[in-house]
Amino acid sequence: MEEGVAIALAAVRLQVKNRILVGTITRDDDFDPDAFSEDAREALHALADEQENASIAMKQARRQAWGRHSDSRGTHDYRDRDTRNLRRRAKQYGGVAKKLRELAEDPDQVRTIVEDARSAAWHDVEMNLDRRLSIEAMRPEDDPEYARMREARMEALMFVDLQRLAGESKRRHQQADDGSH
Question: Rounded to an integer, what distance in angstroms lies between the CA atom of residue 15 and that of residue 96?
Fold first, then answer.
């Protein structure tokens, strides 16, 4: 069960991190921990619902498997010999759902999720800036791929960029000629 909770919490942090990035960068909103706390609670409840549904599905599969002793035809074609495992899985899913609901009602836990998500969002921004600054400031002699990629860049320049530039220039001259007549 602990593994399931850990995986669910990682998914919640990722979802909140993405909402932080979208809200603060693309919409230029201020970081409001309370607003993102509500996002975290919603994500926890949604995952708890998923886990409860999975628990119900395992219970149904267990009932259907009961008393069936033939060979199964596939991965989800359960038999009587699978009922113990299905019961354990249903219990696991139910336990994860219960724990996620408890976490959603604990303000300290929710605050921790939001802070972890904020840190992860900041780390993403920091890494992106660092990568962009490294690329923007890089001199050709510092790039280990420069010589190898030079030929491809030159071909792109000749066959794409110069062709497009020639076409644009030709259109401008035609428009100028059409306008002067």
Answer: 18
* Among 10, 4, 16, CA closest to 52: 4
In whole numbers, what is the pLDDT of the chain averaged over residues? 88
Q: Which 8-state DSSP code applies to residue 29?
A: P
Longest CA span, the chain: 91
Tens-place pLDDT, residues 124-160: 989 888 887 766 666 766 777 777 777 887 888 788 8
Q: Are 1 and 92 in contact (CB under 8 A)?
A: yes
Name the percent of the chain lying above pLDDT 70. 94
pLDDT tens digits for 93-120?
Answer: 999 999 999 999 999 999 999 999 999 9
Q: Cα 38 from chain centroid?
A: 19
Asked whether 100 and 5 are in contact (CB, 8 A), the reply is yes
Pairwise CA distance, residues 23 & 96, whole Å: 29
Give the span between the Cα atoms of 154 and 168, in whole angstroms: 20
* CA separation for the pair 101, 12 (Å, rounded): 13
C-alpha 169: how far from chain center: 44
Tell me if 117 sits within 8 A of 17, measured CB to CB: yes
CB 4 within 8 A of CB 54: no
